[in-house]
Design a protein that fits this description.
Two copies of one chain form a homodimer.
Chain A (H helix, E strand, L loop, with lengths): L1 E7 L15 H4 L3 H8 L2 E6 L9 H8 L4 H4 L4 H7 L9 E10 L5 E3 L9 H8 L9 E6 L4 E7 L29 H21 L3 H8 L7 E9 L6 H5 L3 E5 L2 H9 L3 E2 L13 H13 L5 E6 L1 H7 L3 H19 L5 E6 L16 E6 L13 H4 L6 E3 L3 H9 L8
Parallel strand pairs in A: 1-10, 1-11, 2-13, 8-9, 8-10
Antiparallel strand pairs in A: 2-12, 3-4, 3-6, 3-7, 5-6, 11-12
Helix pairs in contact in A: 5-10, 11-13, 12-13
Chain lengths: ~400, ~400
């Protein structure tokens, strides 16, 4: 038996007038998910607690049984791990953008024209940066204009502000300490030097000279944000005795899995959007389901969240239908899995962002108290036999269904 | 008005194919419980938290409002209190078996032929054991081959392993410290000496010489397990201002009540199984219900749990029917009680052990928001007006219904 948490990222929603006051999920035709519902048990879940708007990162940490209030200080560490930087507890990590600055150091394009090529060469240069003998600079390009920065050394702190000016027309923000510690002052100073030096090292870089020649905005400054300290996390396998694999599209979720010591895969053509290559996503999911080396899988399919952020209720509905047809058709009759279908949070198309609404969950296992709910939807699930649970309950419930959780007491 | 927590131990279950996909409780004819349901309010309860498989001990501690993660280190202290050893906070206590060892100290019968007579004389001898001046040995026989050991003294620890070899054909296990403390090393050494000396003191004991003559296995070694430190627990009456009594069949539950400072009773013929003397159980329950000295009662009837452990779905169903007919017929129309009917945990016949499934609860009180549920069952209760609560909520809810809980705030 294998345990699976299957996250349809951002799936939860609110009624949409244009969909006849149904949510995208309620409006979607999902015969395979409906069959799983009919034969199993449903409920709603507050991933963190009612009304809390979880990020995908804090939500997934919670679902895996880690307390985000303990281990989460920012997105940087997970993004860095997600692009295979070998982060270590205590490292200070950031997401970065390659941006374009003019001669007055004013940011004119936060995404450097969404640069696609050459960032590896720019990263090579940045990796040669030296600030002082104490701190090591580890830098790696990610997709398009994105990159990650890791500071490794003694006396560093994550208690600092962002450098991101948020909109064009401003200089990168001077990073400031958020507390009175020497560590925060020192780290802010290091990051400010990093931003300044990135400009000096990149402005005449061959990649940028070529871009300028082609009329493209140069990627001549690196702007860090999303600072966080890499947490010390008990590896998933050590915590639960279950060997885990994560099948996810985005670096953020892969990074969480990596920091938890789980294996990950890279799915060709997976974009994290509604245009993702779902055939490949399905193939990687089913390979992992069938791989006997693993006792546990975390799956994340991201398109519904993107559609939610875009306010695209049709896209969200249709994407959920596609996932149902392609993937849950394969899972619905498997009797060798304990399958927990959920979202990490709601992303209502009317909000275009995450909300604190609970998400609908299904628990499929060989022996559950089958309830009388017959379709998968936010309001149907609220009447299910699980009633209302929390994200931190899920790993307990899955281990109980797998019969691998130790008894507490006698 | 008297508050009652009525625990049908291990009652919760999962659907059983042979019962038409009903649980034993759903399948049982329980007209009296159904009537209580119809006139009151129901719900489901996670005694500790969803997915956690509680022991009966941790579950009952939780129901009484004690945090098992604080006060529970093992079963020994409650078993010892349950046979009237006057345990004190800090004592290290164990459950023990009288076992049979051969001349090479190999355990040939872990239960010494389920010895019925003479263990009091064996215990007298063991109580004369002297290990050193620091530690006092307190030993008492319990039912059949069972006994308890309490170590009292300075510098003792519960961080040690068991001596129980778990199966015949092995020597008693050498007890080892679980941490690096001097206390754990010392206590492990004391227990190892205890096991060795028990053999020396018992092997030629007259009770055993007689057993050997009769062709019965001698009870010539004592093997401790289930170590725990006796917790310091605020007495129930001091905690709540309610004088409490416990009517339970097993030493474990009685021991929990005793450590909480509650009165207990010994019910003749109560076995804790489905063959228990339910007439006597009923008599002791009703005597306590009618005893005006008590404001609160904890009741535990154990048969459904035993049937669950045995995988005996017919026995479980029939036992619940008997309890309904004999006992809830008496309670259903009492208007001088706040009655909370529950299980401590599920013991599904398909699992033959405790599971993390929630348990169905009823709260009967003079004024409740009567819901539309009309029968007592796991899935019916999941639709009840209480929704899903936790075991640690129960003493708050009962005190509120009794109108004896102070307002928090103004």
């Amino acid at each position: 038996m294998k345990g699976i948490i299957f996250v349809l990222d951002g799936m939860g929603d609110r009624p949409v007038k244009e969909l006849g006051d149904k949510t995208p999920l309620e409006s979607a035709k999902t015969p395979n998910l409906d069959k799983i519902v009919e034969e199993n048990i449903t409920g709603i879940m507050d991933t963190i607690r009612p009304g809390v708007r979880p990020g995908s990162d804090t939500a997934h940490l919670t679902l895996l049984g880690y307390d985000p209030y303990e281990v989460y200080t920012g997105r940087g560490p997970f993004e860095a791990a997600g692009v295979n930087v070998d982060v270590k507890p205590g490292d200070i990590a950031f997401r970065c953008n390659f941006s374009t600055a003019d001669d007055n150091f004013i940011v004119t394009d936060r995404r450097a024209g969404r640069i696609l090529n050459g960032t590896d060469k720019l990263a090579e240069t940045i990796n040669q940066m030296k600030i002082d003998d104490n701190v090591q600079i580890i830098f790696k390009e990610s997709d398009a204009h994105r990159a990650v920065l890791v500071l490794r050394g003694n006396g560093l702190s994550d208690q600092i502000t962002d450098a991101d000016p948020k909109e064009e027309g401003h200089k990168p923000k001077a990073v400031k300490p958020l507390d009175d510690s020497e560590e925060a002052k020192y780290t802010a100073d290091v990051v400010n030097q990093f931003v300044q030096k990135s400009y000096e090292m990149l402005k005449d870089h061959p990649v940028n000279l070529e871009r300028i020649e082609n009329g493209e905005p140069p990627a001549n400054v690196v702007i860090p944000r999303g600072v966080g300290a890499v947490p010390s996390v008990k590896p998933f396998e050590e915590k639960y005795g279950l060997k885990g694999i994560c099948v996810a599209e985005t670096g953020l979720i892969k990074g969480i899995a990596k920091i938890a010591g789980m294996d990950t895969v890279d799915i060709p053509g997976a974009t994290g959007g509604i245009n993702t290559n779902l055939d490949n996503v399905k193939e990687y999911i089913m390979n992992a389901v069938n791989d006997e080396n693993y006792d546990f899988m975390l799956v994340n399919v991201d398109g519904a969240d993107e559609a939610g952020h875009d306010g695209d209720y049709i896209g969200k509905r249709d994407f959920l239908e596609k996932v149902d047809k392609l993937i849950f058709s394969e899972l619905k009759d498997r009797d060798d899995i304990v399958l927990f279908v959920t979202a990490d949070h709601s992303t209502p198309v009317s909000v275009k962002n995450h909300s604190g609404d609970p998400v609908p969950v299904i628990m499929k296992a060989p022996y559950v108290r089958v309830d009388d709910i017959t379709e998968y939807g936010e309001r149907a699930a609220a009447k299910g036999g699980l009633c209302r649970i929390r994200g931190s309950d899920v790993m307990y419930m899955i281990r109980d269904a797998l019969n691998v959780i130790p008894k507490f007491g006698a």
